[in-house]
Design goal:
This protein is of the alpha+beta class. It has helices spanning 46-55, 61-74, 84-100; strands at residues 2-6, 18-22, 33-39, 76-83, 106-111. A three-stranded antiparallel β-sheet has the order 4-3-5. Helix 1 packs across helix 2.
């Protein structure tokens, strides 16, 4: 990347008063990722969890079933990994859906 700096032309200058300074490339870091977790409970139906995984996390039915069974057998499972804002939005959507359906499904997020 080059920045132009204007200076007064002097006699005999062929560059019309423009000189350049090289600057190092500016690199941005990749954003931190967060795991969205579903927690098992004894009341939320398996069908509802599969529906949430398909609607909110866009998993295919087979993948949603696999994740739901993992959560059921292990107590917790990863629904997806996202940037902070996306993870936060997905957690909010899941919690709103669970509340509306009157299920105590818990969805949280943690840094990867």
């Amino acid at each position: 990347m080059r920045n132009e700096i204007r200076r007064n032309p002097q006699e005999g200058d062929d560059d019309a008063g423009v000189s350049t300074i090289d600057q190092p490339d500016i690199r941005t870091e990749k954003p931190r990722l967060y795991k969205v977790l579903l927690h098992n409970d004894d009341f939320t139906s398996m069908e509802f969890v599969v529906a949430v995984l398909m609607e909110v996390f866009h998993h295919a039915e087979n993948d949603a079933m696999t994740i739901m069974l993992h959560v059921h057998h292990n107590g917790i499972g990863v629904a997806g990994v996202y940037t902070y804002e996306v993870a936060e939005t997905r957690v909010s959507r899941v919690m709103a859906m669970a509340k509306e359906a009157q299920f105590p499904l818990l969805c949280t997020m943690e840094p990867e």
